Amino acid sequence: MRSESADRREITAFLGALCLFLSAVEYLIPKPLQFYRLGLANLPILLVLKFLRPADLLLVLLLKVVGQGLINGTLASYVFLFSMAGSVSSVLAMGLVHRVGGRHVGYIGVSLSGALASSVVQLALAVTFIFGETARIIAPLILGSGVITGLVIGVFADRFASVSTWLADLERRYRGKAREEPA
């Protein structure tokens, strides 16, 4: 019989690896701007937001952001800072909307809030530190594509969660409700 903390570590490591895999897939998709991300790597975080403990969520987030920086070769650049700020603001917004909205706000609303928070923070950074006022020209593109990708990821998460026995089992294991039987 495994301990609950061993299950938590295993699940957290798996989620971090899943974020990195999706980040690598996302890296292959052309982006309209260098620092812009579609948000595929946020999908695992969105799916487990309702049951992951804040400390474990933070660890998954850090694995995701640092891993993305390593995969994309941006760890020592302003792109990494944009990614970190966007990811942190996204997770904070998703967590807040999920906690406040409870069962009244689904994956789509939570995903949209995260996408918009990330877009707004990245735009603010672009205006403040990199491009100045000219960055406002790209604001409609960034916000519009953030809404579209947030919507697509939210719809996917909603459909996936409604049929996934894997996700339901993951939640049970994480919360310690199901223990592995000895073989």
Could you walk me through the main structural features you see in this protein, from its secondary elements to its overall organization?
The protein has 183 residues and is mainly α. The protein is 72% helix and 0% strand. It has seven helices and no strands. The protein has helices at 4-27, 43-48, 54-72, 78-101, 107-130, 139-163, 165-174. Helix 3 (54-72) packs antiparallel against helix 4 and helix 5 packs antiparallel against helix 6. The longest helix is centred in the C-terminal third of the chain and has 25 residues, at 139-163.
What does this entry show, briefly?
The protein is 72% helix and 0% strand. The chain is mainly alpha-helical and 183 residues long.
List its traits.
183 residues, mainly alpha, 0% strand, disordered C terminus
Helix content: over 70%
β content, as a range? under 5%
- Overall, the morphology is globular
The count of DSSP E runs of length 2 or more, i.e. the number of strands, is 0
Task: Report the structural category.
Answer: mainly alpha
- Give the N-to-C terminal Cα separation: 10 Å
Supply the number of helical segments. 7
For the biggest sheet, the summary is: none
Mean pLDDT: 87
